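Entry type: protein chain
Record version: 2
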Amino acid sequence: MGGDAQTRAEQDFGAIRRVLVVDDSRLQRRILTGSLRKWGFEVIEADCGEAALDLCRDDPPDLVLSDWVMPGMSGLEFCQAFRRLEADNYAYFILLTSKSEQNEVAQGLDAGADDFLVKPLGADELRARISAGARILSMQRELSEKNRIIERALDELKIVHDAIDKDLIQARKIQESLVPDLTRRFGRSRVSLLLKPCGHIGGDLVGMFSPGENRLGFYSIDVSGHGITSAMMTARLGGYLSSTYFDQNVAMERRFDRFYALLPPEEVAATLNARLIADTGIEEYFTMVYAVVDLRNGHLRMVQAGHPHPLVLRRDGSAEFLGEGGVPIGLLPDVTYQRVETYLQPGDRLLLYSDGFSECRQPDGEMLDPEGLLQLVRQCDKDRGGQEFLDDLFWRLTQVMAPEQGFEDDVSAVFFEYDGH
């Protein structure tokens, strides 16, 4: 192919370079190949469908011009066989027919033909039909290349996703290790924990610790945001409020080198707030309820820092929400936190919960709210306590939530059952 002719072909016919002409008439092939080579195409010829099929197996063309009526394998049968061949790129197929065969166009389309030309052929019409085919092939091949790029990108993303997923699974195990015991007894009383992240990992944290007999502290925390950043913050807070290493726990103070004492809840909140404000690399904040209780007399002291109001369930069937709200920790400097106090009687229970409960979306679009949570609590079996109570409460939450949305936030709770000294 000459340089000028090749340039014209590239400009006019784009995706079509190699053309196969199939016709049992040598004269017809000569007429077609003459025009095609003049337009800059590389042309190969076959005098029957069988020979054309062999050529296509070895090196498929971009365009096929095939007569319909041929001895042996007809153009229609050749088209069907051609479409069954495996090829990297789609090839444009034009059937050449006589006027008497125009009523068989539908049959040709069903066989896989893309276009038809009626003999005798006009050079201008042939060129126009090839140009139309070239445009279709260009779009098809461009689309195929984009699909290949997308497939490669998806394969790469899958590898990355699998690695991230593996890391998140391990991160969840680490986060679960922050809450080693879901239920613990302290004398005749009991603390039970619930932690249900809405994803692999979450930003909620619950915990409890006791530095000695009759002294107990427990907390419910909800870090702003979701995902990895929030989970990393919970890991940090788990160290600040460690149930194992009391010397690291900011809620305790060592006295007389003999024992640890629980600090007032409002001091603990202020300490945590100062630490987060001082760290300029942290933009997250968190809400918290932290409570300490003297198991000898049921004296409960707590601090509420932007967390939902704790719910006291009295043994006589009455209920009340505690606290006045407060400011989240890590949001503003030099915040003064207020202590809330009450006395629990044997048989009283206390529920700390995250806003994954109270802000759970119902089918009507409304949030559950604290009063809705209280209704769920009253529906729970009164004879169930500890982990069974929390599991029952969580199940009832799943029954009133909007099923198509799922949980939009982590769900966590602390359930304290006081049974006297």
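Comment: Confidence is low (pLDDT under 50) at residues 5-10.
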